[in-house]
Amino acid sequence: MIVFDLECRRGQHRFEGWFRSSEDFARQEELGLLICPNCGSADIGKALMAPHVGRKGNQIPVHAPSVPVPAAAPAPTTLPAPAPAEVAAPAVSSTPLPPEAMALMHKLARMQAEALKSSRFVGSSFADDARAMHYGEREAETIHGQTTIEEARELLDEGIAVAPLPFPVVPPEQAN
């Protein structure tokens, strides 16, 4: 996948477009399939973008410190979560989301809240509890809690299905 910053030439609106390849963008542009989400204009082109320049091969990578992230272990009957390499990095944009996207996010938040009603918060013991259930050391149940990205990857490597929650969760002891 490739992401281009696009610009509406009529209204000067900027937005992102995701395409399979540069050729896919060119084909969609040629067929007039690109539409401005703000004003509906089909006069769309690529906006100036700052390129992502990778580090040189002889540089040592800087690793971010492990930061706890909310995670949930689905009940054992669910399908495994995608591997971390299959999950795209979040995109950041300064343009407001279309109303349909906002409605979808609200619906997703309600679905997460409903799902968490039947899940137990285990805090920072998430990885240990998920392992214990996976290896039959304790009864399986749906849990959610916090773990580091490193621990989440280790769980996935062990075949333990975990997935990040779309929205942050306030621990019960910190809730109003």
The beta-strand count equals 7
**Major sheet:** 4 strands, mixed
Coarse morphology: elongated
Q: Assembly state here?
A: single chain
**Count of helical segments?**
4
Helix- and strand-based class? alpha+beta
End-to-end C-alpha gap: 42 Å
Series of secondary-structure elements, N-terminal to C-terminal: EEHEEHEHEHE
Main sheet strand line-up: 5-6-4-7
Report the helical percentage.
25-40%
Report the C-alpha radius of gyration, rounded. Answer: 21 Å
Strand content: 15-25%
Question: Any low-confidence stretches, pLDDT <50, length ≥5?
Answer: 75-82
Average pLDDT, rounded to a whole number, is 79
In short:
With 176 residues, this protein is α+β, with helices and mostly antiparallel strands.
What does this structure look like?
With 176 residues, the protein is α+β, with helices and mostly antiparallel strands. Helix content is 26%, strand content 18%. The chain contains 4 helices and 7 strands; from the N terminus they run ββαββαβαβαβ. The protein has helices at residues 22-30, 99-116, 126-134, 149-157; strands spanning 2-8, 14-19, 44-46, 69-73, 120-123, 143-147, 163-164. β1 (2-8) and β2 form a beta hairpin. It starts with a strand and ends in a 12-residue tail after the last strand.
